[in-house]
């Protein structure tokens, strides 16, 4: 997995370099050549759901390398079929999995989003990390049923473990061993499941960050907070195409959801129907049935075992948002502190952090504070 990129757009990921390695089809790295682009197809799949207010709810993406010489973009080379992803690289990275096999693998971090999110949630933050830590590269993925990965036909069940296995398969295809894995909310349990499922001892110390999620029971926020299950249920009753993002935002706010969450949700709408005189419309990019199943799995999945018996060389960091929408029970905090002491004795590590002045959306509410807390994971390279 490699590609030297510091600025990436969502639809076409600009990449500065490109030298070749027969070992890996499909990415790029930084050298003095014309930019290549990743072209991501985003077919929309109809979502037809009927759910109760508390009901819970994956289709084919192709991320492809398109040679800039092919101006019409008609020729597609080596489509990837595991997950949609972007690789954001610091300026000092000179390695690509398709290029020079002799070049050492740069330190890699994986960033995972939460339910109803996408890799774009991490874009600005990842570019900031790449600028501050130019020797690092950052892999941003769309988890199954989300974003551009929603067009991939994934077998069920759609669960925390299956989402984690997707990421492990992608890392295997790209021949990368990450040194840092950061997961927000649902993505935090995915990160823990990756550690649990990895087929062999990790090749080097790995630092895992679980952002505002506990290993076990998911507790809904206080009255007036946004509840993911209710949000999924609300979205299931909307038409597959809408004429206005503003109308969706207004409907969500009228139903009691916060404006911030409403504006975040409509980032999952893609414009369609722009031919000639036809009025434009917007289609949902996610696969809502699969997402509902994933959220149910998030509520039911218990990852305490991996926290209380941390593999040697792994360090698990929990970050609690001071104004979190999710309540952290005293029992959860107690078990994490007990795990801290035990992990030290067994060659692993567990640590608890608190991000001040932030709600559940930590990378949006207090990006500077989050950056400071995460930064020590990337130092020393």
Question: Can you put this structure into words, describing what you see?
Answer:
Residues 110-371 form the AB hydrolase-1 domain. Belongs to the peptidase S33 family. This is AB hydrolase-1 domain-containing protein. InterPro entries: AB_hydrolase_1, AB_hydrolase_fold, Serine_prot/Carboxylest_S33. Keywords: Hydrolase. This protein starts with 11 loop residues before the first strand and ends in a 6-residue tail after the last helix. It has 381 residues and is of the alpha/beta class. The chain is globular, with a radius of gyration of 20 Å. It has a seven-stranded mixed sheet, sandwiched between helices. It has a single domain, classed as Rossmann fold, CATH 3.40.50. The protein contains eleven helices and 14 strands. It has helices at residues 123-132, 160-174, 186-197, 228-236, 245-254, 259-265, 288-300, 304-308, 330-345, 362-365, 367-375, and strands at 12-15, 36-41, 62-66, 77-80, 85-89, 108-112, 137-141, 180-184, 206-211, 241-242, 269-272, 281-284, 314-321, 349-355.
């Amino acid at each position: 997995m490699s590609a030297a990129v510091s600025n990436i757009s969502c639809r076409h990921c600009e990449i500065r370099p490109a030298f070749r390695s027969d070992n890996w089809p499909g990415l790029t790295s930084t050298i003095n050549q014309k930019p290549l682009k990743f072209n991501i197809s985003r077919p929309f799949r109809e979502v037809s759901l009927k759910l109760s207010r508390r009901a819970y709810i994956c289709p084919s993406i192709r991320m492809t390398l398109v040679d800039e010489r092919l101006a019409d973009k008609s020729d597609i080379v080596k489509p990837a079929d595991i997950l949609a992803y972007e690789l954001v690289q610091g300026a000092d990275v000179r390695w690509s999995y398709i290029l020079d096999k002799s070049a050492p693998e740069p330190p890699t971090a994986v960033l995972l989003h939460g339910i109803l999110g996408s890799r774009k949630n991490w874009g600005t933050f990842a570019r900031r990390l790449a600028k501050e830590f130019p020797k690092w590269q950052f892999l941003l993925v769309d988890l199954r049923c989300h974003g551009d990965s929603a067009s991939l036909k994934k077998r069920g069940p759609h669960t925390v473990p299956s989402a984690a296995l997707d990421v492990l398969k992608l890392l295997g295809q790209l021949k990368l061993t990450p040194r840092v894995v950061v997961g927000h909310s649902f993505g935090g349990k995915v990160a823990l499941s990756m550690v649990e499922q990895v087929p062999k001892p990790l090749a080097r110390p790995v630092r895992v960050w679980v952002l505002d999620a506990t290993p076990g029971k998911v507790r809904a926020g206080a009255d007036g907070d946004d509840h993911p299950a209710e949000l999924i249920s609300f979205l299931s009753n909307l038409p597959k195409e809408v004429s206005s993002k503003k109308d969706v935002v207004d409907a969500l706010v009228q139903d009691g959801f916060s404006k911030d969450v409403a504006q975040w949700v409509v980032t999952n709408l893609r414009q369609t129907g722009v031919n000639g005189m036809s009025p434009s419309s917007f289609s949902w990019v996610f696969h809502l049935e699969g997402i509902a199943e994933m959220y149910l799995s998030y509520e039911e999945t218990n990852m305490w075992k991996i926290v209380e018996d941390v593999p040697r060389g792994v360090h698990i960091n929990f970050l609690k948002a001071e104004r979190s929408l999710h309540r952290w029970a005293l029992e959860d905090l107690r078990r994490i502190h007990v795990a801290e002491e035990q992990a030290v004795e067994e060659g692993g590590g567990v640590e608890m952090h608190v991000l001040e002045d932030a709600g559940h959306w930590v990378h949006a509410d207090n990006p500077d504070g989050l950056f400071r807390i995460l930064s020590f994971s990337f130092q020393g390279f």
